Write a sequence for this structure.
């Protein structure tokens, strides 16, 4: 077994200085070493997208990346979205409002994929959502409500931004 | 058994509303606690070595290299595991033994031959790669028809033939109906094996206590409170020393009822080392070897009709490829005979089924559970009859529908349909689909050489099973009595008036917490968000068959209402005693116990709670302390089968109904089928929660799109190797395959259930495949195509077009 590799990685705003085996996948580092169980593994081969996280703001399948590749990177997972006081992120609010989840296993991947999309395209339409999340599999919902959720999230976030701006002006 | 009197829906406050889902926050934030999230101190990680061969003798296994690997704690062969655990339960009468890790012989590709526990999963998989197995190949049985030949290699030496079960039963005068028919329509059809493939695989964490001889087992199994003794039997632990703990389940669709393989392997590993062990299937373990697989049927069917199109009799001859084992026996056929005649007045039925063993993974249950191909063949026959007799397909259905005044209606097999209004559903579906517009579009596109098709199917969704269907096709005597297949709920109100419900079924991706919250809220007049819901482990005594057969909302609402009413009645007595009134004069409105007609005199939930917990004052008429009730809700309407099986009894009597109208465009050159639009009218009785029911129906339809167009297990013709071991080869529908689905509900409440609810969990997948088949048919009618095989992959569609051209 080769020597462990030292990586410095920021996860959900917290800096970590870690020793890891070269073959450790990012998904396993998050789940096993950092106890962030919200990132789920559905296929471990990049097909289902359940393990999607943001690596330097880019939606990335954490089952296809070695942690050792990410020295210096910043990672966001589903645990970064809601406030510690239980306030859901607007994307999460939209998913519950539009019933965009059932068993919830694919949901963290959908949420993080949606997060990346909404940072690029603030008010996406159906085609935008299909392009961004078309590679994420869900076996429960039939997708219709996931598409709605992401579109609704865009509206909620725009409204929130507008009210924050008007608050600043006032 | 009684007919439940229910007020009209409009008078209810919470039942029937799209109440916010209680389950969501934990699921949305990564805190739900799936099996993969369970970590115990000192826990090891398991992995399994799978057979690459379909059929082989195991000559030798050398585990020495694997055992020498640092971090490896246990390596178990099948023989070693057999020292620790017993064979898995088979719900069949035939001598078909199945062990979680094969001993001496592998019978399907992917069958486990060894298991490892190590300090991490990576090391466990390294160890699997170092196990040396020598196989002696045997002929692989892939084709079920060939496997039926007396000369075929046998999958099990204990059987005389690979036809593990055959039975032919007639209900009504089948031969007479065939003889007097004006037209007998014959159709052959092929429904290939598909898998449930939830995004979360099956898994377990076992912790064996060698001193107390007790086992704690976390898992994503459903049957922990229904058949815990079956798990105890496998694990060789006494039933009262096994504690099974539920986890949030990342989807099941029928595939995680038992997952005995996972439980057995994990339990054996833990017993071998006395430490906790986690074993989670990887995707290939799940696809190749779990209880994922649905029906795999060849139909040869006939429908006898009178001159005016009246359906007289139905003949279904079925060969069903069960794979290498017979886990749930012929339960999928018990299921299918709940509704073989669909929504039609068909007077007689011949059901002839041969269950065949081959070298494939064994069947489990998958959404539809045997009624899915049943709907496919019946609606194919009806469409074919319409075509052959020159009767419009809508008109033919109308003429044969069971009428609203004929309920409760007994079908030939003896099952009862509780209620329905099929013509109203059909009419509304035709209306929302805007059929004239689509016919015009079809004409327009045909002129351009394009092929648009309009599908139509009117199908049943039997719901609320009685598990007698698993065995009632055996013998001429009852091997077992009927079963009510119950569901339990415990409700307690604490001293501060807080209401907590504890249920026996796990969270499988549906919404038991929300449903329980709605029912409790309805009964007490409180807000559903104030109700907390917990999940019971197997030590609670709750009996629960959980989700399955579209039963859980029916059964859980019955259990919860019963428990809520018992507690509420006691609270009324406590309040009446405290207020020095007659209980008859006290009512509970909006969570307040008050004098009827004099609302000024009242007690809050908290006041009654404190009184009941702490202040049994010892005076005459004071209630015993505490506010807790367990209600076990037995199946609300079932009757046992007769000894000669001329009447199977009512076993699946809450019958939902739907009409689906999909619009497709087919490219005959490439075989591509595109869904342009999809219209549904659904009747599942009283809709408990419209948003959640819509989610179930649409999710089911999309699985049905998969069944219609892409999902299929493929095994190599020559070597029997699994060609679809991952989700790269076994395709699931993605966002790109899904049209906007337009859904409406009509409600004919069930007279048998609390609130009039019926099942809704499987309907989408029970109807969509046959509806889409009829749409493709309609599109390619100018080319003379008749769809008789699913899924309609591009290759198959091109083949069907070529065959049709050849016939011309």
């Amino acid at each position: 077994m080769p020597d462990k590799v030292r990586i410095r990685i920021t996860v959900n705003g917290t800096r970590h200085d870690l020793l890891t085996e070269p073959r450790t996948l990012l998904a396993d580092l998050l789940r096993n070493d950092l106890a962030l169980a919200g990132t789920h593994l559905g296929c471990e081969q990049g097909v289902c997208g359940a393990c999607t996280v943001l690596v330097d703001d880019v939606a990335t399948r954490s089952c296809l990346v070695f942690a050792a590749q990410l020295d210096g990177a910043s990672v966001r997972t589903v645990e970064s979205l809601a406030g510690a006081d239980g306030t859901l992120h607007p994307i999460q609010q939209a998913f519950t409002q539009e019933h965009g989840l059932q068993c919830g296993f694919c949901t963290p991947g959908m949420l993080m994929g949606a997060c990346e999309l909404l940072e690029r395209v603030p008010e996406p339409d159906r085609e935008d959502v299909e392009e961004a999340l078309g590679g994420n599999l869900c076996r429960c919902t039939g997708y219709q409500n996931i598409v709605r959720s992401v579109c609704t999230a865009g509206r909620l976030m725009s409204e929130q931004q507008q009210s924050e701006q008007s608050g600043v002006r006032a | 058994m009684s007919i439940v009197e229910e007020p009209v829906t409009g008078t209810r406050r919470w039942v029937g509303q799209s109440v916010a889902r209680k389950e969501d926050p934990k699921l949305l934030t990564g805190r739900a606690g799936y099996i993969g999230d369970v970590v115990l101190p000192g826990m090891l990680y398991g992995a399994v070595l799978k057979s690459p061969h379909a059929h082989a003798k195991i000559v030798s296994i050398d585990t020495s290299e694997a055992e020498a690997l640092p971090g490896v704690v246990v390596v178990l062969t099948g023989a070693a595991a057999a020292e620790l655990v017993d064979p898995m339960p088979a719900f069949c009468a035939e001598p078909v033994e199945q062990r979680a890790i094969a001993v001496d012989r592998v019978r399907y590709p992917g069958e486990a031959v060894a298991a490892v526990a190590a300090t991490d999963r990576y090391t466990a998989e390294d160890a699997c790669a170092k196990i040396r197995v020598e196989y002696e190949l045997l002929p692989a049985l892939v084709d079920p028809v060939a496997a039926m030949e007396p000369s075929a290699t046998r999958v099990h030496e204990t059987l005389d033939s690979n036809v593990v079960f055959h039975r032919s039963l007639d209900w009504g005068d089948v031969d007479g109906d065939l003889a007097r028919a004006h037209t007998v329509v014959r159709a052959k059809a092929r429904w290939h094996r598909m898998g449930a493939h939830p995004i979360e695989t099956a898994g377990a964490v076992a912790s064996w206590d060698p001193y107390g001889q007790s086992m704690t087992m976390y898992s994503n199994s459903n049957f922990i409170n229904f058949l815990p003794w079956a798990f105890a039997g496998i694990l060789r632990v006494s039933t009262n020393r096994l504690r099974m703990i539920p986890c949030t389940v990342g989807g099941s669709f029928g595939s995680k009822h038992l997952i005995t393989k996972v439980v057995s392997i994990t339990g054996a590993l833990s017993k071998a080392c006395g430490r906790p062990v986690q074993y989670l299937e990887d995707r290939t373990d799940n696809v190749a070897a779990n209880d994922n697989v649905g029906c795999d049927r060849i139909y040869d069917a006939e429908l006898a009709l009178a001159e005016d199109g009246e359906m007289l009799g139905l003949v279904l001859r079925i060969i069903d490829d069960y794979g290498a084992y017979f886990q749930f026996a012929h339960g999928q056929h018990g299921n299918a005979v709940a509704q073989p005649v669909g929504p039609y007045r068909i007077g007689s039925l011949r059901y002839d089924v041969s269950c065949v063993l081959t070298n494939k993974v064994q069947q489990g249950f998958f959404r539809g559970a045997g009624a899915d191909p049943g709907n496919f063949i019946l609606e194919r026959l009806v469409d074919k009859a319409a075509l052959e007799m020159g009767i419009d397909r809508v008109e033919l259905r109308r003429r044969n529908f069971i009428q609203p005044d004929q309920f409760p209606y007994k079908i030939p097999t003896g099952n009862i349909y509780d209620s329905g209004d099929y013509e109203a559903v059909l009419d509304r579906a035709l209306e929302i689909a805007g059929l004239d517009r689509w016919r015009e579009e079809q004409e327009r596109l045909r002129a351009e050489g394009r092929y648009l098709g309009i599908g139509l199917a009117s199908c049943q969704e039997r719901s609320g099973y009685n598990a007698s269907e698993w065995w009632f096709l055996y013998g001429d005597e009852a091997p077992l009595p009927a079963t009510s297949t119950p569901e339990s709920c415990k409700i307690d109100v604490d001293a501060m008036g807080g209401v907590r419900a504890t249920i026996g079924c796990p969270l499988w991706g549906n919404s038991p917490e929300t449903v329980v919250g709605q029912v409790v809220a309805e009964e007490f007049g409180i807000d559903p968000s104030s109700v907390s819901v917990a999940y019971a482990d197997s030590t609670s005594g709750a009996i629960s068959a959980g989700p399955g057969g579209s039963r859980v909302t029916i059964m859980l609402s019955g259990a919860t209402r019963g428990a809520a009413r018992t507690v509420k009645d006691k609270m009324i007595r406590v309040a009446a005693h405290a207020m020095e009134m007659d209980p008859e004069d006290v009512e509970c409105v909006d969570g307040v116990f008050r004098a009827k007609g004099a609302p000024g005199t009242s007690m809050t939930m908290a006041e009654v709670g404190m009184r009941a917990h702490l202040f049994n004052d010892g005076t005459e008429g004071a209630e015993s302390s505490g506010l807790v009730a367990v209600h076990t809700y037995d199946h609300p309407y079932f009757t046992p089968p007769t000894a000669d099986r001329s009447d199977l009894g009512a076993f699946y009597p809450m019958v939902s109904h739907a009409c689906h109208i999909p619009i497709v465009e087919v490219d005959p050159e490439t075989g591509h089928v595109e869904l342009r639009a999809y219209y549904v009218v659904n009747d599942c009785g009283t809709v408990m929660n419209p948003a959640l029911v819509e989610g179930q129906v649409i999710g089911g339809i999309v699985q049905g799109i998969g069944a219609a167009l892409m999902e299929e297990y493929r095994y190599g013709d020559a070597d029997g190797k699994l060609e679809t071991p991952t989700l790269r080869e076994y395709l699931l529908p993605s966002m790109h395959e899904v049209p906007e689905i337009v859904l409406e509900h009509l409600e004919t409440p069930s007279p048998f259930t609390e609130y009039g609810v019926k099942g809704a969990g499987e309907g989408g997948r029970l109807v969509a495949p046959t509806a889409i088949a009829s749409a493709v048919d309609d599109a390619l009618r100018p080319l003379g195509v008749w769809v008789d095989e699913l899924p309609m992959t591009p290759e198959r569609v091109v083949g069907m077009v070529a065959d049709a051209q050849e016939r011309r």
Remarks:
- Residues 114 and 150 of chain A are 6 Å apart (CA to CA).
- Chain A touches chain B through 56 residues (CB under 8 Å).
- The mean pLDDT of chain A is 96.
